Amino acid sequence: MDITIKQLKAFVTVAQTRNFAEAGERLHLSQPALSIALKNMEEVVGGKLLARTTRTLSLTPEGEAFLPVAQRLLADWDNALTDLHNLFAMRRGKLSIATMASFSISKLPKALHHYRDQFPDINITVQDVVAEEVIDMVRKGRVEVGVTFDLEESEDLHFEPLFEDSFFVVTPQDHPLLKQKTIRWAELQNYPFVTLQRPSAMRQMIDDTTDSCGIHLTVEFEAHQLASIGSMVANGLGISVVPSLAIQQMQLLGAESRPLTDPVVKRQVGILTRRRYPLSSAANALVETLKSQITAP
Fold first, then answer.
1. Which segments constitute the HTH lysR-type domain (predicted)?
2. CATH code, 121
């Protein structure tokens, strides 16, 4: 049998008051119940903690040695319960999420602003990474929530769509394609192309589309991040294809954009979580915030 919190409280209260009647009142226990709790505790530890006579109540040497330990255990227990209550009440906590960089630049700040207004004591760490790494971080439990493109049906991950994103051409500011309001995929093969490295989801989407349309792109530069793509395009190294989420980022880097047609290619962007793993209160609140605040570009 283990020592219980009730027994610890009984021992500490009796040790502090040196009076069974007063200790019983503080703990809302009858004196017989208090005596039984202390007797059971002494049986567990293997000896007397209290020395009782008809007139006096004192601690044995073992009881004196154990008292500060028992007080510390009770304080730790109370602090742990307070911390747990604060977590559920959203008065403290930490939350890590992973999102595509294009989403963290364009859509996430508004949602986080709304979230902070409601829960100012929750500290949030944002991992802005490529789409594939978002999936990996959620799958391995390194973050509770991810925002990325839709993925193949998965047994261990749950995807909840937020909106549908379409794809745009990005070009240098003085590019001849900017004279058009829209640009056909077939026109891309007439210019040097800058793209993400394989096996990125974006690169796979571009390859699948061009293969199905019989289009051959002249890939001259490859990079790992959309920011690098945008900078290369802005400096005249070629053109590229990015999701509409990244247009704001491309403009900040000095590139221009136009919608892509023939075909119009779209992908779902949504919230990624692990199946069979319940979310914390903070993560649940963030998911609800994203669903209420995020709209299509």
1. 3-60
2. 3.40.190.10
- pLDDT over 70 (residue 157): yes
Q: What is the pLDDT of residue 167?
A: 94
Q: How many CB atoms lie within 10 A of CB 218?
A: 11
The answer on 41 and 11 residing in a single domain is: yes
CATH number for the domain spanning 179: value is 3.40.190.290
pLDDT of residue 134: 95
| Predicted confidence (pLDDT) at residue 1 exceeds the cutoff of 70 | no
Q: Are residues 180 and 33 in the same domain?
A: no
The predicted model scores a pTM of 0.71
**Do 117 and 99 form a contact (C-beta atoms < 8 A)?**
no
Residue of 73, 85, 62 whose CA lies nearest to 5: 73
The Cβ of residue 85 has, within 10 Å, a number of other Cβ atoms equal to 11
